[in-house]
Amino acid sequence: MGWLWWVGAALLFGILEMASLDLVFAMLAGGAVAGAVAYALGAPVWLQCVVAAVCALLMLFVLRPWLLHRLRERVDLVETNAAALVGREAVALSTVTPEGGRVKIGGEVWSARVADEGAAPIPPGAPVRVARIDGATAVVAPSLEV
């Protein structure tokens, strides 16, 4: 009956992997399958746990990086969420200083600040480019396109 726990854990990790698509839970599911195999071979519970943990760790640190490298060779990485905003054009809605301001990025209003501490304030209506995102603040620089 112990193999059901291992198979159940593998199925749970498989479902979590489908939600995350990060290849972490898939490696943990592989470890759970290895634990089930150890159970089938008659290993005691402590050895099943060791086999599952070692297999999962090997898969996480050896197989996963190799799989991610191969995947990124074949498919372009598409940035999402805040990472997708870096490099985009925006418009200053208020004066943007190193202390703060407001910009509009693709229809959304963001709090913003100037990327360079010594830079001159950016006036309202001026085009800017998003340099990075710090939490909920867009760090911007004056756009080269005027």
From TrEMBL:
Keyword flag rRNA-binding = no
Q: Which domain of life is it from?
A: Bacteria
The UniProt keywords, alphabetically, are: Membrane, Transmembrane, Transmembrane helix
What transmembrane ranges does the database entry give? 44-63
- Give the subcellular location: Membrane
User: What membrane topology term does the record carry?
Assistant: Multi-pass membrane protein
What is the official name of this protein in its record? NfeD family protein
Q: What is its main location?
A: membrane
- Source organism: Cellulomonas alba
Q: Which InterPro entries match?
A: Membrane_assoc_protease, NA-bd_OB-fold, NfeD-like_C
Pfam families per the record?
NfeD (PF01957)
Question: Where would I find the NfeD-like C-terminal domain in this sequence?
Answer: 83-142
